[in-house]
Amino acid sequence: MSETATATAIMPEPVGRRPPPAPYEGSAAERIAKRYVERHWQGETYYGRNVVKPSPFSWVVWVYIFVGGLSGSAAILAALADLFGDEESKSIVSRGRHLAAIGSAIGAPLLIADLHTPQRFFNMLRIYRATSPMSIGSWILTGFGAGAVATAGADLLGWRAIARVMQVPTALLGAGMSVYTAALLSATNTPFWAAMPRLLAARFGSSAMASAAAALSLAERIDGNDAGARKLDRIAAVATAAELAVTMATPGRLRAVGLERPVRQDKWAMIDRFGAAGLGVVVPLGCYAVARLGRKQNRTLGVAAALGILAGGLLMRMSLMYAGQDSANSAQDYFRFTERPRRERGG
Amino acid sequence: MTAVHPRARDYPQSELPHLIPRESELTAGVIIEPGKSYGFFTDTTRCIGCKACEVACKEWNALPADNLGLTGMSFDNTGALSANTWRHVTFVEKIGADGERVTDMPPYQSNWLMMSDVCKHCHNAPCLEACPTGALFRTEFDTVVVQQDICNGCGYCQPACPFGVVEVSAIDGKAHKCTLCYDRLKGGLEPACAKACPTDSIQFGEVGELVERAKDRVAELHDRGASDAYLYGAPGTPGATGGLDHLHAFFLLTDAPEVYNLPAAPTRASRRTYPSLGTGLAVMAALATAAAFIMGERR
What we know:
The complex is a heterodimer.
Chain A: H1 27-38, H2 59-84, H3 90-114, H4 133-157, H5 160-186, H6 191-194, H7 197-223, H8 226-256, H9 260-264, H10 267-294, H11 299-328, H12 331-337, H13 340-346
Helix pairs in contact in A: 2-3, 2-5, 2-7, 2-11, 3-4, 3-7, 4-5, 5-7, 7-8, 7-11, 8-10, 8-11, 8-13, 10-11
Chain B: H1 23-27, E1 38-43, H2 52-61, E2 87-93, E3 112-118, H3 126-130, E4 136-138, E5 144-146, H4 157-160, E6 167-168, E7 175-176, H5 182-186, H6 192-196, E8 202-206, H7 207-223, E9 230-232, E10 249-253, H8 273-296
């Protein structure tokens, strides 16, 4: 039987799902336990100390979220311009491919630099873990980086057929690049990020698309291709309008789960409101509207809108990142977030 | 034998030729075998706040000192679990909290609440699910351990933990947390903290057996008039919520979980992965469709 069972000798069957112990059924104790799960938090804390730990991510991460999203969406725009565009779109195709390659070439070293043991970065590709956006993202970035560099390389060498084939998987992975970072932040127990997995993804995605269109539009304008730039401006306007809708839905969601504090008061809230939403969404949409009403070629408005979108996108990632870190350091935010009644009401 | 005190030689019967095989059977009444689930039942009504568990853990695992100095808030100068502190005794001093003279006492512990906090070794462990390298793994004892030779310090387990347990060390850049004394379990020894606990507030054993024992203890406390005792982290109780299923290190508490810095209804972080990814990809598909139409317009 178990006489000789030294721990090292026997390898068990893989430990996955073992039948859990029988449910807890003490009468009075069960009622107490149930009450604590189902009640609203009454304000108790342990000397106000934080409960969960904030992520150990540095500024590198929010810069990467911006750069990665921009390059992912640039690959999508390049592929769409190649597949559906006309003669005026040719320069967009090339620039989009180059931007995607440069973005992934910057993004990967940034992420490696943020590891606390960077010399082991390759362990990221040791396994694939479907429950970990960090693992999913590592593979997306690896695939996207390879695809983007191959597409851009083929483009530079004039191997058009190879570029046309390679751009398709690259663009598909580009969609992942644009949004997986939202899952990365949301699939944590940092209250501010965990409270809005869907809204965060919609916001990152629309902002990534707007940023890529804005960056390419700037390049086209500098190059003198105004017709191409105007198309990109319209894409940026559509994406920015989507971002506006998501931005407006966010405060209600946070109020429902009791986390309105971080967005209402501190400096990150101000940066989010005036930098991300104001400069990055409202100002560009205004510029595009005025340019459209004016019916004449107004380069200044297009350039201003594009710059606003890029700056706003970067500020949005920064403010969301640090607002999240603050909420992880707040026992109040975490205990409100982990209240079951509030979470259920919040959806 | 290295340096032994000369007087110790007067008692040769105390010298052991080798480790006691399956020592845990003597100290904890349990034989440690791979393939079974092991954990802790921490009964806070028995904790006297001696911090022997903290010391035993530091000694056995050779953990660096942490947070030297006084917190100034209570007898808890450890503060929190961290990369270097894998057992942490919380001190909640409730007597006279509102400035009034106390004239009657609750039935035990003078209402000083002490709890030896530890990694919960969740049944569905968010840290393990977040780990992209596979450094965090489930052992043959159904516990959750970080492999130090694989961890690359990405730090993603740190915000994933719903209890603030695992942390990346500033000293070596790897994530660290309680291993439930994986090395000791391999050698048939009870974990250091449980073995050192002088009041059996920390009990080590097979999870199913511990839950039964804990239920009996709760019933006993209720019989004795301590009607606020309940379990935290056992199946179907606070802490065992949000997809975590149940915690392999669970607690007997006598006040709201938040009083001990524990969330009432924590959640499994990985649950939010696919709602987020799915919504994001749907938004990207919609925007790409719009962009394709705009790109395709001819004038």
